[in-house]
């Protein structure tokens, strides 16, 4: 249940000053949508590099930039700035726990890029800390907030395709091997599972709920990073989901939700579909299209701002319990795949 908090500035209608942690590709994309958000001020950015921080600030119009130096990390300096109200964390996965914890300890509201953490233990710890500090915290699974996703769920929950019995979803692309790239770097939480499988899982869980069982198959490369995986989700009374994510091969990148009275298929890519195909019991297929001025991140940003202004600690659309439970599913899959990261050692000792 979402709570009420007193941390940070959160008055109705008040401008929220945003800080951005990290300056990679996803940070640029999200910031372009943030610039369109009503009541948002692009205030500060941090990076390990002074050049990256200043270039990002100049490109997007931030008032302040911070970088690593002898006095401390760039993100810690950003968190110490009392003018920052809320931060968006766009670092590689393995750094999420450390950075989000520091932000919460400094009294900042947080929107953290997916996957929320490396494992469920880290996720539980951050949720507990946010609760103790009366701060807003949310995983940035932008797909959950998109108009197409919300419309698909509306159809499903209204019985428009009957009882859902089967979900199939895939996401993959052939990524050139580069051990220095975060996709392939085990120290950064690399691999197809944590980077891509969140999206097929999002559609399966939205349509069928969390499964009673999970079976994972896949292949690890010489660095111990998964290059491809298949997840089979098992539900009572035989409902099922088959999900694939890959850094080796391209696929249609769609989700199909099949029910006893019809089906829904998303456009591609399933993480940001602009259309839905809906087939009713009579076999007639209709198409619903969704047009966006912005790229699509604005919906999760708007929800973040709405919740902060309302004094909520968690979003009813992306509650903490579901984030922790999703990380638990990924933990199960990793255990079956033999996929382990350095962060797991900390979880064992705490």
UniProtKB/TrEMBL annotation:
Domain GFO/IDH/MocA-like oxidoreductase: start-end pairs: 150-265
Record key words, sorted: NAD, Oxidoreductase
Annotated Gfo/Idh/MocA-like oxidoreductase N-terminal domain residues: 16-138
Pfam entry (one): GFO_IDH_MocA
Recorded family membership: Belongs to the Gfo/Idh/MocA family.
Protein name according to UniProt: Gfo/Idh/MocA family oxidoreductase
Organism: Pseudarthrobacter quantipunctorum
């Amino acid at each position: 249940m979402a709570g009420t908090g007193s941390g940070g500035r959160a008055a109705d209608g008040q401008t929220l000053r945003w800080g951005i942690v990290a300056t990679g590709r996803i940070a640029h994309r999200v910031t372009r949508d943030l610039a369109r958000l009503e009541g948002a001020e692009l205030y500060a950015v941090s990076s390990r590099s002074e050049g990256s921080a200043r270039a990002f600030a100049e490109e997007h119009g931030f008032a302040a930039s911070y970088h690593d130096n002898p006095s401390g990390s760039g993100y810690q300096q950003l968190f110490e700035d009392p003018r920052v109200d809320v931060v968006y964390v766009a670092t590689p996965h393995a750094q999420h726990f450390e950075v989000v914890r520091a932000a919460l300890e400094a009294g900042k509201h947080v929107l953290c890029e997916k996957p929320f953490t490396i494992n469920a233990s880290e996720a539980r710890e951050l949720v507990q800390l946010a609760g103790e500090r009366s701060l807003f915290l949310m995983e940035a699974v932008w797909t959950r907030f998109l108009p197409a996703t919300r419309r698909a769920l509306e159809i499903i929950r209204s019985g428009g395709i009957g009882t859902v019995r089967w979900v199939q979803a895939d996401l993959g692309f052939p990524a050139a091997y580069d051990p220095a790239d975060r996709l392939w770097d085990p120290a950064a939480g690399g691999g197809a599972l944590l980077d891509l499988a969140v999206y097929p899982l999002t559609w399966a869980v939205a349509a069928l709920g969390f499964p009673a069982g999970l079976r994972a198959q896949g292949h690890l490369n010489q660095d111990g990073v998964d290059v491809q995986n298949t997840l089979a989700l098992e539900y009572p009374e035989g409902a099922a989901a088959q999900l694939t994510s890959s850094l080796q091969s391209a696929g249609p990148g769609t989700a199909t939700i099949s029910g006893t009275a019809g089906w829904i298929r998303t456009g591609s890519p399933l993480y940001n579909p602009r259309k839905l195909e809906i087939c009713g019991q009579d076999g007639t297929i209709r198409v619903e299209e969704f047009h966006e001025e912005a790229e699509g991140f604005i919906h999760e940003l708007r929800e973040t701002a709405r919740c902060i202004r309302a004094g909520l600690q968690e979003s009813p659309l992306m509650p903490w319990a579901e984030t922790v439970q999703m990380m638990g599913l990924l933990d199960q899959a990793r255990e079956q795949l033999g996929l382990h990261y350095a962060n797991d050692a900390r979880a064992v000792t705490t």
